[in-house]
Amino acid sequence: MSALASREVLKLGDRVRFDQAEHTVVGLAGTAVRLQSQTGVDSVVLLSHLLSWSDFEVIGGAEQPSLTSLGLLEAVPPRAREMALFWERHIAEVETGLPPEAEAGAEPREEYDPAVTTVEDRVAAKARELAEADQPVSVRTLHRMRQRYREQGVWGLVDQRATRQQTLSGRVDPRVITALTALIEAETSDSTGTKSRLRRRVEQALADEYGPGVVPMPSRATFDRLAGALTAGRHTFGSAVTRRQAANRPAGAFTLTAAARPGEQVQIDTTPLDVLAVLDDGVTGRVELTIAVDVATRTICAAVLRPAGTKAVDAAVLLARMLVPEPMRPGWSQALAMKTSRLPHARLLDIDRRLELAAAKPVIVPDTVVCDRGKVFLSEAFQRACRSLGISVQPAHPRTPTDKAVVERTFASINTLFCQHVAGYVGRDVTRRGEPVEAVWTLAELQDLLDEWIVAGWQPRPHQGLRHPRSPQLTLSPNDMYACLVAAAGYLPLTLTGEDYIELLPVTWRAINDYGIQIDYRTYDDEALTPYRRQSSPIEAKRGLWPVHYDPYDLSRVWLRGPDGWITIAWTHAAMVPQPFADFTWRHARKLAAATGRDDTDQTELAWLLADLLKRAGAGPVERRIRARTKAASGPSPHRPAITPAPDDLPEQEDAAADDHDAQIIPFGVFDPFSDQEYL
Q: Whole-angstrom Cα distance, residue 82 to residue 373?
């Protein structure tokens, strides 16, 4: 038997310390302990509560052997662990007369029987036995091992040399570590250097503070090892941008930004677009993109392109564009119309007649707007626009981009899914830029391309961050997610009271399992179901199933009749969808989820249209005359001034140049995937 076999028990008459006072145990009943204080006041405390109290102890009790974590033994080398278990067998035999692996009823050997021998006799016998087994050990060492075994268990028998952890500094002067740590912090805002520069700075800092040569410097190999360990994950000798971003990371844990309904939180931000454009004055340059992204559906509510230096009025225009439907443009395919999409167009049309000729992008009115602390969003014009629209503005913390992580990630998606396919793409930095890079699109044309891509390429595209709570294995598109959430948030059932209302509700027969009740892949559970788990109902006609009442217009809870009345059982994921939802809403959500990624019938024309859009953007217009005729054929855009068509009587030089090419100029028409043989 081991040392743990001698652990004491709590018994009547013991004096204990509890809640900063001394008590006497006067009664034990199951897991309850009756205590009497020194003033004669009785109290009954659960044993688990008593033992877990911070200042609990048995006054005058024997010292209890400590438990040894198995994880600690696994952390030492195998040889040291084997030796610790070897010594445990012998020390336990000295202490109790039997080794730990002795079977029940085994008798101790004569020289180790505690009934006829003393501790000194047993220790001397064990020393002789180990000496004969070529494992000599002194009596004094055995006594020290006995003491450590009683205090620490098996861990006290582990060779402590095997548990020593090598320190980072080793024999390096601590003042070098202090100076090195401070200078690594200072490197965050400096240009990237090398370890040799850092070493020189450390030497200079130590000489300035303690005098030249007072603090010994480690060898170059040791210094490089220390610098590498202290700069791990800080990118001190890598990219300066990454280094500053890592230093700006919040100290707390990251929390996922979540919203349960469209418009609950909309994030707005501005970033330079990685595409060159021809500005109104003919000068080429990069433009700035300001977007608003709905967190619940990942819908790009609005996107505005402006030359560098976005103004406060541009941010106010962004808010105005969010609140109006995206109109169908001349030349757009009818597959981009809202009435042919998965959005609930007929239901929304009864509320807003403006959606009759709208494109397949929902109109989302924000409740809260999250933005950074740029002067554009803190300006009086933007704040006044939000107040007039009834929108609450929530500025992000200074230098904390994680407060609006959704819009920051959307910028990266726009860069990979749209910008890199557009002529004039410059890459995110000069190391990724081709030669030469020319601007071929005007700002207005680039805005039209972006608007078309949002409707055709972003809104119907499955998003990895959008997963329906009832079908998490499938991804939804922003339009699909909007259709699900608007159905759940837009229709509230009439809540009635009384048991008669529950009686008239439909009934479904279900079993009550360990995890609760499951209905159409929804799980309902409550502590009140504990007496009924894995039990059969007394209704034999239903094979032991239980009658569960449910409201088809509010599936967030169900009811079960108990002996004392109705038991209300909540849906386990009700916190994720706090709004009531109906059974047809559930079925519609499942159909949408099943269609995503499986049935591409409705997305065939959109896929062809997107491929044509990216091809046109990548090739760019051949010359301005073709662009002018294209604008004339398609008509003016609602978001740009009307362009006057080019006259038929062009100058002779231009006509001659056209004749030299010996080619007919054909304006861009509407893409037809069934007639264009190039794609067949």
A: 62
Tell me how many domains the chain contains: 5
CA 79 from chain center: how many Å?
42
The answer to whether residues 192 and 152 belong to one domain is no
Give me the phi and psi of 243, to 5 degrees please: -65, -45
DSSP 8-state secondary structure symbol assigned to residue 109: P
pTM listed for this prediction: 0.50
pLDDT one-digit tens code per residue, 414-437: 988 998 888 888 887 777 777 777
Helix (H, G, I), strand (E, B) or coil at 181: helix
Residue 433 within any structural domain of the chain: yes
Sheet with 554-562, strands from edge to edge, namely 507-510, 546-551, 554-562, 565-571, 522-525, 517-519
The tokens for 38 are 């020194």
Angle between helices 312-322 and 380-389 in degrees, nearest 10: 20
Q: Residue 287: which of 271, 301, 303 has the closest Cα?
A: 271
The percentage of the chain sitting over the pLDDT mark of 70, rounded to a whole number, equals 73
Bridge partners (DSSP) listed for residue 275: 425
Picking from 15, 31, 58, the residue at the C-terminal end of a domain is: 58
Contacts of residue 104, Cβ cutoff 8 Å, sequence gap at least 6: none
**Contacts of 329 by beta carbon, 8 Å cutoff, 6+ apart:** 359, 448, 451, 452, 634, 637, 638
Write out pLDDT tens, residues 233-254.
Answer: 888 888 888 888 777 776 666 6
Give φ, ψ of 15 to 5 degrees. -105, 130
Examine residue 479 and state whether it is found in any structural domain, yes or no. Answer: no
261 contact partners, CB below 8 Å, separation of at least 6: 296, 485, 486, 488, 489, 579
Q: 611: pLDDT confidence band, cut at 50, 70 and 90? A: very low
268: three-class secondary structure by DSSP: strand
CA–CA distance, 344 with 340 (Å, rounded to integer): 10
pLDDT digits (tens, 9 = 90+) for 57-91: 888 755 555 555 566 777 788 888 888 889 988 99
357 and 429: one domain? yes
